[in-house]
Amino acid sequence: MPRFDLPVDELRTYRPDVPEPDDFDAFWADTLAASRAVAEPPRLTRVDSPLALVDVIDVEFSGYAGDPVKGWLLVPAGATGPLPAVVEYVGYGGGRGLPHERLGWAASGYAHFLMDTRGQGSSWGTGGGTPDPHGTGPSHPGFMTRGIHDPAEYYYRRVMTDAVLAVDAIRSLDVVDASRVAVAGMSQGGGLALAAAGLVEGLVGAMPDVPFLCHFERAVGMTDKDPYSEIVRFLSVHRDAGPTVFRTLSYFDGVHFARRATAPAFVSVALMDTICPPSTVYAAANHHAVGAEVVEYAFNDHEGGLGVHWQRQAAWLAERLDAFADDTAA
Hints:
By secondary structure, the chain is an alpha/beta fold. Helices cover 35% and strands 19% of the residues. Residues 1-318 form the Acetyl xylan esterase domain.
């Protein structure tokens, strides 16, 4: 796939005016307050595993509206903490999978929590275990248009609330240092990391990797790939629904969450990405309130940097934690 977006020099300064709803902050404050009001302490169940050097814990925490959400917590074997933690979110269609599939953070001395994504986990990987019990109106197959007639009913209202409450749950654990928590994720997971970083204070950093769910109007008009194309196909049938659809999406745009971030971000972008066009990633990164370092992968599609990028994330987060320790000591 040849490059199809703006020239690189223009991407690096691309900072479009992305309109946001006047009640954006009130919408999210009310949403989170309602779910936090009914949240219960997370339930932890230690799991027998062949992983001799990592303890595996099956976690169930309260997400949106108190719904139970699953996740894996991996910590170095025998660790009592308090450890720095990484809360990670999964890409579109995937679930939390199996514990041995993501060992990098725990093997590096972190508490690592991998959140399941409600209703997903059946498109790739090794599955998930969290249903989405809330119905929606007419929608195209997939998740992008579920409840899209109303931001209060939209699917990502529930998932982004889950992402925030996952941080709450992990911060409540004795094994975790609540002041040293970062969020991360690839694609959909990167979009959720942006959302969490815009809605949660006191994180040490966010690591959105080729993030999805950014600058919706540009993305929907630029790529013919799913998941954004689910919205295109919906609108090709519901021909007069565009204003309603894009109003709903404006409550969930990574650009607006980046504007509210209180911790630095380490963002990746692939310049040949046909799923999350580079300009949509830069739109969020260039609006970031406290600064986003962007790593470009010039000849990659949506796979981005994969293992190479994880090494860079690990180095960046270690530097952030060192800086945090120095600030705390001072």
